[in-house]
Write a structure and sequence with these properties.
mainly alpha; 2 strands; two-stranded antiparallel sheet; about 300 residues; about 50% helix
Length: about 300
Protein backbone atom coordinates (compact mmCIF):
# COMPACT_ATOMS: atom_id res chain seq x y z
CA UNK A 1 0.00 0.00 0.00
CA UNK A 2 1.30 3.44 -0.92
CA UNK A 3 1.44 5.76 2.07
CA UNK A 4 -0.16 9.16 1.81
CA UNK A 5 2.07 12.20 2.49
CA UNK A 6 0.52 12.44 5.96
CA UNK A 7 1.30 8.78 6.66
CA UNK A 8 4.88 9.20 5.46
CA UNK A 9 5.29 12.21 7.73
CA UNK A 10 3.89 10.24 10.66
CA UNK A 11 6.17 7.25 10.00
CA UNK A 12 9.24 9.45 9.63
CA UNK A 13 8.38 11.12 12.94
CA UNK A 14 7.97 7.76 14.70
CA UNK A 15 11.19 6.36 13.22
CA UNK A 16 13.24 9.32 14.44
CA UNK A 17 11.45 9.67 17.78
CA UNK A 18 13.90 9.50 20.67
CA UNK A 19 12.46 7.42 23.50
CA UNK A 20 15.10 8.53 25.97
CA UNK A 21 14.83 12.13 27.08
CA UNK A 22 16.84 14.37 24.73
CA UNK A 23 20.08 15.78 26.15
CA UNK A 24 20.05 19.37 27.43
CA UNK A 25 20.90 22.05 24.86
CA UNK A 26 23.98 23.19 26.79
CA UNK A 27 26.60 21.21 28.73
CA UNK A 28 25.53 20.57 32.28
CA UNK A 29 26.80 18.72 35.29
CA UNK A 30 23.84 16.35 35.02
CA UNK A 31 21.85 15.09 32.06
CA UNK A 32 23.26 14.37 28.63
CA UNK A 33 23.27 10.90 27.16
CA UNK A 34 21.83 8.35 29.60
CA UNK A 35 24.25 5.81 30.99
CA UNK A 36 21.46 3.21 30.92
CA UNK A 37 19.38 3.94 27.79
CA UNK A 38 15.98 2.50 26.94
CA UNK A 39 17.37 -0.28 24.73
CA UNK A 40 19.80 -1.41 27.42
CA UNK A 41 17.05 -1.41 30.04
CA UNK A 42 14.71 -3.41 27.78
CA UNK A 43 17.47 -5.95 27.14
CA UNK A 44 18.32 -6.22 30.84
CA UNK A 45 14.75 -6.64 32.08
CA UNK A 46 13.97 -9.36 29.54
CA UNK A 47 17.42 -11.03 29.51
CA UNK A 48 17.77 -10.34 25.80
CA UNK A 49 20.97 -9.62 23.90
CA UNK A 50 21.18 -5.93 23.06
CA UNK A 51 20.77 -6.48 19.26
CA UNK A 52 17.53 -8.38 19.90
CA UNK A 53 16.21 -5.55 22.06
CA UNK A 54 17.02 -3.09 19.26
CA UNK A 55 14.96 -5.21 16.84
CA UNK A 56 12.04 -5.25 19.27
CA UNK A 57 12.15 -1.45 19.49
CA UNK A 58 11.98 -1.23 15.69
CA UNK A 59 8.87 -3.44 15.72
CA UNK A 60 7.40 -1.35 18.54
CA UNK A 61 7.74 1.74 16.35
CA UNK A 62 5.91 -0.06 13.55
CA UNK A 63 3.18 -1.04 15.97
CA UNK A 64 2.76 2.62 16.99
CA UNK A 65 2.34 3.57 13.35
CA UNK A 66 -0.26 0.85 12.77
CA UNK A 67 -2.19 1.89 15.89
CA UNK A 68 -2.77 5.26 14.23
CA UNK A 69 -2.80 4.50 10.51
CA UNK A 70 -4.30 1.02 10.08
CA UNK A 71 -7.90 2.17 10.52
CA UNK A 72 -8.85 -0.92 12.53
CA UNK A 73 -8.05 -2.41 15.95
CA UNK A 74 -4.45 -3.60 16.26
CA UNK A 75 -2.62 -5.66 18.86
CA UNK A 76 1.08 -6.11 19.70
CA UNK A 77 2.98 -9.35 20.01
CA UNK A 78 4.38 -10.31 23.39
CA UNK A 79 7.84 -8.96 22.63
CA UNK A 80 6.48 -5.69 21.27
CA UNK A 81 4.25 -5.39 24.31
CA UNK A 82 7.30 -5.64 26.57
CA UNK A 83 8.72 -2.55 24.86
CA UNK A 84 5.35 -0.81 25.15
CA UNK A 85 5.07 -1.61 28.86
CA UNK A 86 8.53 -0.23 29.53
CA UNK A 87 7.92 2.92 27.49
CA UNK A 88 4.80 3.64 29.54
CA UNK A 89 7.05 4.05 32.58
CA UNK A 90 8.85 6.88 30.78
CA UNK A 91 5.81 9.08 31.35
CA UNK A 92 7.09 12.33 29.89
CA UNK A 93 8.54 10.59 26.86
CA UNK A 94 5.35 8.60 26.27
CA UNK A 95 2.57 11.05 27.08
CA UNK A 96 4.08 14.46 26.42
CA UNK A 97 6.38 13.82 23.49
CA UNK A 98 5.10 10.65 21.77
CA UNK A 99 1.35 11.11 22.19
CA UNK A 100 1.29 14.89 22.36
CA UNK A 101 3.79 15.77 19.65
CA UNK A 102 4.12 12.74 17.33
CA UNK A 103 0.91 10.70 17.38
CA UNK A 104 -1.16 13.77 18.30
CA UNK A 105 -3.60 11.56 20.19
CA UNK A 106 -3.53 9.39 23.31
CA UNK A 107 -2.71 5.70 23.18
CA UNK A 108 -3.92 4.19 26.46
CA UNK A 109 -3.20 0.80 27.98
CA UNK A 110 -6.01 -0.57 30.17
CA UNK A 111 -7.37 -3.94 31.39
CA UNK A 112 -9.86 -5.87 29.30
CA UNK A 113 -12.84 -7.79 30.63
CA UNK A 114 -11.35 -11.20 29.84
CA UNK A 115 -13.24 -14.31 28.81
CA UNK A 116 -13.52 -16.44 25.68
CA UNK A 117 -15.22 -13.71 23.64
CA UNK A 118 -12.39 -11.29 24.37
CA UNK A 119 -9.79 -13.91 23.47
CA UNK A 120 -11.49 -14.55 20.14
CA UNK A 121 -11.79 -10.84 19.44
CA UNK A 122 -8.14 -10.14 20.12
CA UNK A 123 -7.00 -13.13 18.07
CA UNK A 124 -8.92 -11.64 15.14
CA UNK A 125 -7.39 -8.22 15.75
CA UNK A 126 -3.93 -9.75 15.87
CA UNK A 127 -4.47 -11.43 12.49
CA UNK A 128 -5.60 -8.12 11.02
CA UNK A 129 -2.57 -6.42 12.51
CA UNK A 130 -0.26 -8.84 10.70
CA UNK A 131 -2.14 -8.23 7.45
CA UNK A 132 -1.85 -4.45 7.79
CA UNK A 133 1.82 -4.78 8.72
CA UNK A 134 2.56 -6.47 5.40
CA UNK A 135 0.28 -4.07 3.54
CA UNK A 136 1.99 -0.93 4.87
CA UNK A 137 5.59 -2.09 5.14
CA UNK A 138 5.71 -4.36 2.09
CA UNK A 139 7.00 -7.41 3.96
CA UNK A 140 5.67 -9.94 6.47
CA UNK A 141 6.25 -9.27 10.13
CA UNK A 142 9.26 -11.25 11.44
CA UNK A 143 7.87 -14.46 12.88
CA UNK A 144 10.29 -14.63 15.80
CA UNK A 145 8.87 -11.33 17.08
CA UNK A 146 5.34 -11.60 15.63
CA UNK A 147 4.38 -15.31 15.81
CA UNK A 148 1.53 -16.58 13.66
CA UNK A 149 -1.93 -16.30 15.21
CA UNK A 150 -2.17 -20.10 15.50
CA UNK A 151 0.72 -19.95 17.96
CA UNK A 152 -0.81 -17.36 20.27
CA UNK A 153 -1.13 -19.88 23.07
CA UNK A 154 2.57 -20.68 22.89
CA UNK A 155 5.50 -18.74 24.18
CA UNK A 156 7.29 -16.73 21.52
CA UNK A 157 10.73 -17.91 20.58
CA UNK A 158 13.24 -16.12 22.75
CA UNK A 159 16.91 -15.67 21.94
CA UNK A 160 19.52 -17.09 24.23
CA UNK A 161 20.30 -14.53 26.92
CA UNK A 162 23.55 -12.68 26.71
CA UNK A 163 26.46 -14.40 28.41
CA UNK A 164 26.36 -13.80 32.11
CA UNK A 165 28.27 -15.30 35.02
CA UNK A 166 26.25 -17.98 36.80
CA UNK A 167 24.22 -16.47 39.63
CA UNK A 168 25.39 -17.13 43.14
CA UNK A 169 23.01 -19.10 45.29
CA UNK A 170 22.42 -18.01 48.84
CA UNK A 171 20.92 -20.54 51.19
CA UNK A 172 17.86 -19.51 53.13
CA UNK A 173 17.90 -19.78 56.94
CA UNK A 174 15.52 -22.75 56.69
CA UNK A 175 17.88 -24.59 54.32
CA UNK A 176 20.85 -23.90 56.56
CA UNK A 177 18.88 -25.15 59.60
CA UNK A 178 18.04 -28.44 57.89
CA UNK A 179 21.64 -28.98 56.85
CA UNK A 180 22.98 -28.32 60.36
CA UNK A 181 20.31 -30.51 61.92
CA UNK A 182 21.21 -33.38 59.60
CA UNK A 183 24.88 -33.09 60.48
CA UNK A 184 24.04 -33.05 64.17
CA UNK A 185 21.78 -36.09 63.85
CA UNK A 186 24.42 -38.08 62.00
CA UNK A 187 27.19 -36.96 64.30
CA UNK A 188 25.48 -37.82 67.58
CA UNK A 189 26.31 -41.57 67.52
CA UNK A 190 29.91 -40.85 66.52
CA UNK A 191 30.34 -38.40 69.38
CA UNK A 192 29.07 -40.99 71.81
CA UNK A 193 31.42 -43.67 70.51
CA UNK A 194 34.54 -41.54 70.14
CA UNK A 195 33.89 -39.72 73.42
CA UNK A 196 34.55 -42.87 75.41
CA UNK A 197 38.17 -42.82 76.54
CA UNK A 198 37.99 -46.30 78.00
CA UNK A 199 36.64 -49.51 76.50
CA UNK A 200 33.08 -50.18 77.56
CA UNK A 201 31.34 -53.52 77.95
CA UNK A 202 29.29 -54.43 74.92
CA UNK A 203 26.06 -54.17 76.86
CA UNK A 204 26.78 -50.65 78.05
CA UNK A 205 27.96 -49.54 74.60
CA UNK A 206 24.81 -50.79 72.90
CA UNK A 207 22.67 -49.27 75.64
CA UNK A 208 24.16 -45.87 74.77
CA UNK A 209 24.31 -46.35 71.00
CA UNK A 210 20.77 -47.55 70.32
CA UNK A 211 19.04 -44.42 71.76
CA UNK A 212 21.49 -42.22 69.84
CA UNK A 213 20.69 -44.01 66.58
CA UNK A 214 16.98 -43.70 67.28
CA UNK A 215 17.35 -39.96 67.87
CA UNK A 216 19.31 -39.61 64.62
CA UNK A 217 16.65 -41.51 62.67
CA UNK A 218 13.86 -39.35 64.10
CA UNK A 219 15.81 -36.19 63.28
CA UNK A 220 16.45 -37.25 59.70
CA UNK A 221 12.78 -38.17 59.23
CA UNK A 222 11.69 -34.77 60.53
CA UNK A 223 14.08 -33.04 58.16
CA UNK A 224 12.74 -35.05 55.21
CA UNK A 225 9.14 -34.19 56.08
CA UNK A 226 10.04 -30.50 56.40
CA UNK A 227 11.73 -30.50 53.00
CA UNK A 228 8.74 -32.24 51.37
CA UNK A 229 6.30 -29.71 52.83
CA UNK A 230 8.48 -26.85 51.62
CA UNK A 231 8.56 -28.22 48.06
CA UNK A 232 4.80 -28.76 48.12
CA UNK A 233 4.23 -25.18 49.26
CA UNK A 234 6.46 -23.81 46.53
CA UNK A 235 4.67 -25.85 43.87
CA UNK A 236 1.26 -24.62 45.04
CA UNK A 237 2.52 -21.03 45.14
CA UNK A 238 3.92 -21.30 41.61
CA UNK A 239 0.62 -22.78 40.40
CA UNK A 240 -1.37 -19.94 41.97
CA UNK A 241 1.02 -17.40 40.47
CA UNK A 242 0.64 -18.91 37.02
CA UNK A 243 -3.15 -18.87 37.26
CA UNK A 244 -3.32 -15.25 38.34
CA UNK A 245 -0.71 -13.75 36.03
CA UNK A 246 -2.31 -11.42 33.55
CA UNK A 247 -0.06 -9.85 31.02
CA UNK A 248 0.71 -11.33 27.65
CA UNK A 249 1.52 -14.76 29.06
CA UNK A 250 1.04 -16.67 25.87
CA UNK A 251 1.85 -14.64 22.85
CA UNK A 252 -0.06 -11.68 21.58
CA UNK A 253 -3.46 -10.16 21.90
CA UNK A 254 -5.38 -7.10 20.96
CA UNK A 255 -5.23 -3.40 20.41
CA UNK A 256 -8.15 -1.55 18.97
CA UNK A 257 -8.07 1.63 16.93
CA UNK A 258 -11.04 3.92 17.16
CA UNK A 259 -11.50 5.50 20.56
CA UNK A 260 -7.95 6.33 21.59
CA UNK A 261 -7.85 3.72 24.33
CA UNK A 262 -5.53 0.77 24.89
CA UNK A 263 -6.76 -2.22 26.91
CA UNK A 264 -4.67 -4.80 28.66
CA UNK A 265 -5.68 -7.88 30.56
CA UNK A 266 -5.09 -11.61 30.70
CA UNK A 267 -2.82 -11.54 27.72
CA UNK A 268 -5.13 -9.14 25.90
CA UNK A 269 -4.36 -5.68 24.66
CA UNK A 270 -6.30 -3.12 22.77
CA UNK A 271 -5.55 0.30 21.49
CA UNK A 272 -6.75 2.97 19.23
CA UNK A 273 -5.57 5.28 16.55
CA UNK A 274 -7.47 7.28 13.96
CA UNK A 275 -11.20 6.55 13.95
CA UNK A 276 -11.79 4.74 10.71
CA UNK A 277 -9.76 6.14 7.91
CA UNK A 278 -6.17 6.03 9.09
CA UNK A 279 -4.42 9.40 9.14
CA UNK A 280 -6.48 12.10 7.55
CA UNK A 281 -5.07 14.99 9.50
CA UNK A 282 -3.09 17.88 8.15
CA UNK A 283 0.63 18.20 7.72
CA UNK A 284 1.24 17.22 11.30
CA UNK A 285 0.88 13.61 10.14
CA UNK A 286 -1.58 11.88 12.38
CA UNK A 287 -3.87 14.48 13.84
CA UNK A 288 -6.97 12.57 12.86
CA UNK A 289 -10.34 14.21 12.43
CA UNK A 290 -12.19 11.26 13.88
CA UNK A 291 -11.54 12.36 17.41
CA UNK A 292 -9.57 11.23 20.37
CA UNK A 293 -9.82 12.44 23.91
CA UNK A 294 -9.90 16.15 24.23
CA UNK A 295 -13.07 17.23 22.44
CA UNK A 296 -13.54 19.19 19.29
CA UNK A 297 -12.90 16.12 17.15
CA UNK A 298 -9.27 17.08 16.91
CA UNK A 299 -7.36 14.03 18.03
CA UNK A 300 -5.53 14.67 21.28
CA UNK A 301 -6.85 18.05 22.25
CA UNK A 302 -5.43 19.85 19.27
CA UNK A 303 -1.91 18.64 19.75
CA UNK A 304 -1.54 19.86 23.27
CA UNK A 305 -0.54 16.54 24.79
CA UNK A 306 -2.33 13.45 25.92
CA UNK A 307 -2.94 14.04 29.55
CA UNK A 308 -1.36 11.81 32.08
CA UNK A 309 -3.72 9.01 32.75
Amino acid sequence: MTMTPEMKHLWDSIKTFRIDEPPPPVPATTGGEPAFPFAARLASENRWPRPHAERVITEYRRFLFLAVAAGHPVTPSKSVDEAWHLHLTYTRSYWDRLCGQVLRQPLHHEPTRGGAAEESKFADWYSRTLESYERFFGEPAPRDLWPHHSNLSRQESRPAPAHEPPPTRSRSPRTRWRRHAALAALGAPLLIITGCTRPLPNGVLWAMLIPALAIAAIGLAAIGISAALTRSGRTASARRSGESSGSCSGGAHGCGAGAATMHHGTGDHSGDGCDSGGCDGGSDGGGGTGGGDGGGGSGCGGGGGCGGS
